[in-house]
Amino acid sequence: HSSKRSLTKIYAYGHDQDQRKFWLALILTSVTLQDIRNTVGNIPMEWYKDYPHIGYDLDGKKIFKPIRNKDELDEFLDKMENPDYWRTVQDKMTGADIRLSDEQVDLVHRLQEGKFGDVNFNEYEPAIDFFSNEVMIHPVTNRPQDKRSFIPSLIEKEKVGKLVHAIKMGWIKPRRPKETTPQYYDLWAKEDPNSILGRHKMHVPAPKLKLPGHEESYNPPPEYLMSEEERLAWEQQDPEDRKLSFLPQKFACLRAVPAYSRFIHERFERCLDLYLCPRQRKMRVNVNPEDLIPKLPKPKDLQPFPTTQSLVYRGHSSLVRSISTSPSGQWLVSGSDDCTVRFWEVSTARCLKTVEVGGAVKGVAWNPNPSICLVAISYDDTVVLLNPGLGDRLVSTATDQLISSYEEPEEVKEQPVQWTVAEGEGHEQGHRLILKHPKAVRQVTWHGKGDYLACVMPDNGSSLQVVIHQVSKRRTQNPFRKNKGLVQCVSFHPIRPYFFVATQRYVRVYNLIKQELTKKLMANCKWISSMATHPGGDNVICGSYDCRLAWFDLDLSTKPYKVLRHHKKALRSVAYHRHYPLFASGSDDGSVIVCHGMVYNDLLQNPLIVPVKVLKGHTITHDLGVLDVTFHPTQPWVFSSGADGTVRLFT
């Protein structure tokens, strides 16, 4: 405590910034304490972070940390109410709060401003000039002169001797005097007079005109003369398409040949060709074609992926537009234009249940939440939530209880969609909720948690194209005041609160919490048909009707990272696998192409995309092939539905 004044004096001589910081820390942590009790020494106090004590006193007993149970609210109240809050600091050695005195606060302020710690220290004291211009009687130092200052140096004598010897031997030559006469160079002295100058090397002579042949003779052989039909055909042709620019004619003698009518015209065109047509010598680069092919791993090294057709699910009488698998992977649902929805057992291809609906089924989607057994089915302007009653009976009954436990709110708000509970025969078939929309519904898709359902109703002139339903509250909302373009399909982000909306040419990514547009992806294609989101959420693939598949890396760019053109006809559906690095696309050419799409955790490494297998099996019906593809949730299997009325499983 008594050393505080001396410390500030010592600090006064610390001109270095680091020195000042050291003294400031020392003053704050040591000088301001009433009692330096902690004997742990100069160590990081973080070492005691997980212990109840903070060090040891002089007797070797533990110094326990003071009880700090202040939360942020108490801290805020203390900040508002305690007048000494600003001058209170925590001592890391003891964990106690210390109130700085006015003198210490003043010292801290001086140090922060870069001043000296001691108030009385004068940094501008007059300097004592020891060596001035005045000649002094007595010298500053009375030291006698060195002996070396008046005796020749032996070392220098030796060096000079070596240099003289080197000059005698010719090792060191004297510098030549610089020539003052100007020098001139002849640039063309060494040039070969027969060589072509550089500016003429690239010259390409104009091609010479074709020499006249038999057809240009005034007396050509009879086979060169045109018949009446050939002459009429020649006159009807465009000048560019004619083989000959004139009609061959026969004259009795050279005197009878008239002047050529197009002579000046042709000469003028020839002159134009000579001075307007650019001719340049192109340097041909010899490239090995194999070097241009990217080095991709062999498909054999990228297994497992589906390779063979294992099962065919037959039963539908018309084209199967949509398929979906249950979260367990045991059941498969398919919707067809024959106005039926069929439920299949995946492992046996046995149809367990057929539900008839009132129109051609445009989309089916199984709820991804394994604790809820619900399937969304869309046809015409209706979406039906259906409980198939397959699998675990406890889950099925729990789903029914969840729907029946709904209580209507006191204030009923007007909604764009009418919710009704299914009764009678529909309820026996499994119908639970019926949602009547103002327009025809094209697509249904679930959120990953299984409570929200998005529906797409394409209509170019309307703002109501996308609606999101909340099943637990039976509430419908239109997230967009107006839609830009004709909405094709939508998708929820698997992890974050993002919503993907694909129009004909763009994919817009919206943040549902902030309610704003986050990104706008440019697909570089004419008409987007389908979209799928990677389970990691950072990559999106889009299929289009102009045979392209675009892979977007959301962290990389708003333009496609890669565009694949493997299909010959329009793409109808794309899908990612939930666990394996696989994605598939189905097209009207009747094939399903499976690709390996590896996404790395390292952000600097781009995704690896390798096509591994083309799966064929569907027959093309009415120019339509594969209409929907989806992966098995756990196995590397892919399902495809086609216009031939079948669903096929490739394993």
From TrEMBL:
Organism of derivation: Cyprinus carpio carpio
Family from the record: Belongs to the WD repeat BOP1/ERB1 family.
Matches recorded under SUPFAM superfamilies: WD40 repeat-like (SSF50978)
Gene Ontology cellular-component annotations: nucleoplasm; PeBoW complex; preribosome, large subunit precursor
InterPro entries: BOP1/Erb1, BOP1_N_dom, WD40/YVTN_repeat-like_dom_sf, WD40_repeat_CS, WD40_repeat_dom_sf, WD40_rpt
Residue ranges annotated for the BOP1 N-terminal domain, each copy included: 48-306
Nucleus listed as a keyword: yes
Residue stretches of each WD repeat: 313-354, 619-651
The entry's keywords: Nucleus, Repeat, Ribosome biogenesis, rRNA processing, WD repeat
Purpose: Component of the PeBoW complex, which is required for maturation of 28S and 5.8S ribosomal RNAs and formation of the 60S ribosome.
Main location: nucleus
UniProt xrefs under Pfam families: BOP1NT, WD40
Quaternary structure, from the entry: Component of the PeBoW complex, composed of BOP1, PES1 and WDR12. The complex is held together by BOP1, which interacts with PES1 via its N-terminal domain and with WDR12 via a high-affinity interaction between the seven-bladed beta-propeller domains of the 2 proteins. The NOP7 complex associates with the 66S pre-ribosome. The PeBoW complex associates with DDX27, BOP1 interacts directly with DDX27. Component of the PeBoW complex, composed of BOP1, PES1 and WDR12. Within the PeBoW complex BOP1 interacts directly with PES1 and WDR12. The PeBoW complex also associates with the 66S pre-ribosome.
Subcellular location: Nucleus, Nucleolus; Nucleus, Nucleoplasm
Listed name of the protein: Ribosome biogenesis protein BOP1
Molecular-function GO term, any one: ribonucleoprotein complex binding
GO biological process, one term: maturation of LSU-rRNA from tricistronic rRNA transcript (SSU-rRNA, 5.8S rRNA, LSU-rRNA)
Residues annotated as transmembrane: none
Gene field: BOP1
